[in-house]
Amino acid sequence: MTPPGNHILPHYDAALNAIRTRVNAVCGSLLKHMDVLERVISGPDSDGANGIIADGEPLSEETRQVLSLCAAVLTQFHPLGSDLRLVLTFSRCGDKLQECMEEVTGIARHAKASIRRRESLCTDIVLPLLDMAVSEFRDAARCLETQDADAAREIRLRDKKLDKAHRKALALLVSPERENTPSLNVNLLFIIRSLERIGDIAKTIAATVVFLKEATDIRHGKEK
């Protein structure tokens, strides 16, 4: 994320830099876990799922630290204007990154359950959806780092394609004509729902970038 400008209070810059560093680190960790998810599902790989699950709480603690640091900056420095929007952006993204970690961990848990029961993970359905969700989140994290509002608006448009793919995946999973699926795997329904939620999270992060740069709220589908 682009470093904040120099302020009269050096402690203020240090506080903003500390938040920015944590946000970037959490985004990086989430992307690594999403890469592991591809191996979990295509493998299938229970060990990879276990690694994601084990790292869930430590990474959640990192996001809680982001929120705590944001609250401290608001209380101590009382930022205004673009500085206030910057801190609010960090705070909103901290919330969303926490949600994203929960979705990623949930996917790992449901994939592990399917592997244990020797249920099909339907890679032909799940992997394309995973690729779309990861791509959207990766680009949202990049927009947050570069503060690129135009690219952020593009991500919100791309999320409509992920929503459409999610609906199609659901329809395929419950289709009685689908071969090699003797019974409905409920874990898969949770997995594809979480992938759709990751796209929603990326869309919200993109909206915070527009809010940061233009003081415009586009979270609900129209600019205000």
UniProtKB/TrEMBL annotation:
Leader peptide range in chain numbering: none
Transmembrane segments: none
Pfam families: PhoU (PF01895)
Start and end residues of each PhoU domain: 130-208
PANTHER family linked: PHOSPHATE-SPECIFIC TRANSPORT SYSTEM ACCESSORY PROTEIN PHOU
Taxonomic lineage of the native organism: Bacteria, Pseudomonadati, Verrucomicrobiota, Verrucomicrobiia, Verrucomicrobiales
Superkingdom as given in the UniProt entry: Bacteria
Name of the protein in its database record: Phosphate uptake regulator PhoU
Source organism of this protein record: Akkermansia massiliensis
Classification via InterPro entries: PhoU, PhoU-like_sf, PhoU_dom
Family: Belongs to the PhoU family.
